[in-house]
Amino acid sequence: MNFETRAIRTQLDRTQHREHSAPVYNTSGFIFEDAEQMRALFAEEYEGHMYSRYSNPNSSEFEEKIKLLEGVEDAFATASGMAAVFASLAPLLQNGDHIVASSALFGASVTILTKILPRYGITATLVHPEQPEAWEKAIRPNTKMLFLETPSNPGLAVIDLAWAGELARKHGLIFNVDNCFATPYLQQPAHYGADLITHSATKFIDGQGRVLGGVVAGRKDLIAEVRKFCRATGPSMAPFNAWVLSKSLETLAVRMDRHCDNALRIAEHFQDHPEVERVNYPFLPSHPQYDIARRQMKAGGGIITLTVRGGLERCRQFIDARQMISLSANLGDTRTIITHPAFSTHSKLSEEERQAIGILPGLVRLSVGLEHPNDIIADLEQALEKSKVASEVR
Ligand SMILES: *Cc1c(COP(=O)(O)O)cnc(C)c1O
Fold it and tell me: Alpha-carbon torsion 249, 254, 257, 262, what sign?
């Protein structure tokens, strides 16, 4: 079956009510028929729900879909994207282990690697996504994992998954990919040898800005460790959120097609604009890794960055002059969202760390929504015009 069909037709068994759409199983626990069943389930002699921190029909349906859409063996749903990222690291590494990771990772992922895991004796070397020659040099005898994000947030650096997969294989490393920006619809890292794939389902998988969620997908033996870790430590996905996210997957393909079409139109519109210094989008030929993006992604994704002329103050005026577009830290919503990474998601990094991953003071991240592209363009145009006048008056 094709992607769209799997996303729609993978479904829990119907109950005696013959419902068409799977219900929400808002229950913390499940009953056992008798003492013997309780014993057998706890002994894991066969599979069945016991307690929603372990599993729930709604999270199982969501995991089953992710598994099929990413083309992997198993998946475990978590309460948020960060819970998924942490669960893809903590159970598989121990004191003395080392990770080689892209420096262009989500801000909180960098915090885990540089501030939290080192306290437990797990260290990381961050390597620049656009300097592949530095990656192999960073691998040490105790390196256990290669962790990256492509396209990256917010710099949209694209890393060659085939190359990275080969590097991981050659050195026997667990290859871990945060696939949040692309979603399994645009790119399937398992095709390039990824052992683990993490998602913030909060973003395009929900796509409507309603719930938090995450998922770790990948090799069966590794997900077994992730599941054991999460069952004990508790970052499980709530049944209602799992129900919302499983429904959301039914429309992922059509939504992503439109996000990508809108984003490309907007990127093309602003690429030669006199008030915009630079537009970055993986499917614009000016993108430094355009060829790699074309090779490994079905389309360019829903995120663009724009660097407005005039630096920080002008950028502030531009953001405040928008009328329709939302100012929010989230992304992957039906509503177009603008974010100023230097002041928000990446404010914990130093100026040098930001510069190194291309976050300039005038850079805004645009999560292109599903409104009509002409309306998005019109709002950006009027904000550029108004901020131009405002900065001239100053
Ligand atoms: C948002 C995001 C996360 C974290 O996800 P939450 O659901 O907010 O915890 C991780 N990685 C990337 C690339 C993200 O954009």
Answer: negative
